[in-house]
Specification:
mainly alpha, TetR/AcrR family transcriptional regulator, single chain, Homeodomain-like_sf, 2 domains, elongated
């Protein structure tokens, strides 16, 4: 079990509480507003995060750490052998995206003058493509997906569509659907992601899809 210093624990607590606060308020608050909402002094927050951009990035990296643990656990306990497995996997990913929705949408929409972040996002995208390709290869092996999806041009367009739906729905939710609630909208977003596979389903895959 990892041990943290008092300062590290305080920093992590601030990150978690501010994440919940930003999600609740749906806006980037001032330092004084944050301090008042969290019942902390402004100096305690700014001691760890002298700029709001750094606080947003800390929340975003906390999301990535949590997602990494989820992926590790998921990969250890199951593999993509059916669309039902995919549905469970995407459902878990979407729940994490929703938990960190404000910081994720902020990072995606607001350009940050941070070369390290830009490089990190590019690297993350490439790693996600590798995982996606492995997942598809597994579904091809189990007769769910037609191997035509593995062709470079098909996979490239599929990846573009799949990645955008799986990541930017948090922006659409905040802009258009938050009054309807996540519980109501999640099945629609989830179906949208799974529908990316529709053109490449085998007869077995279509049967699997119809029984989700």
């Amino acid at each position: 079990m990892t041990k943290f210093s008092k300062g590290e624990k305080t920093k992590k607590t601030i990150v978690k509480r501010v994440n919940k606060l930003f999600n609740k308020k749906e806006m980037l608050l001032t330092w004084d507003e944050m301090a008042a909402e969290l019942n902390l002094s402004r100096s305690i927050i700014t001691n760890y995060f002298p700029r709001k951009e750094l606080l947003i990035l800390a929340i975003y990296y906390e999301f990535e750490h949590t997602l990494k643990l989820f992926l590790k656990n998921h990969n250890q306990n199951s593999e993509a052998t059916s669309l039902q497995h995919l549905k469970v996997y995407y459902s878990g990913v979407m729940d994490l995206l929703f938990e960190y929705r404000f910081s994720i949408s902020y990072v995606l929409v607001n350009p940050m003058n941070d070369e390290a972040l830009r490089s990190h996002l590019d690297s993350t995208y490439e790693n996600n493509k590798i995982r996606l390709l492995d997942r598809i290869k597994n579904l091809v092996k189990f007769g769910i997906i037609n191997k035509a999806l593995l062709k470079d041009d098909n996979f490239s367009s599929f990846t573009f569509q799949h990645t955008n739906l799986l990541t930017t729905w948090v922006i659409s939710y905040r802009l258009y659907d938050k009054n309807l609630g996540y519980k109501k909208m999640k099945p629609i977003y989830l179906k949208g992601v799974l529908d990316c596979y529709l053109p490449y389903l085998t007869s077995k895959g279509k049967f699997d899809y119809d029984n989700l």
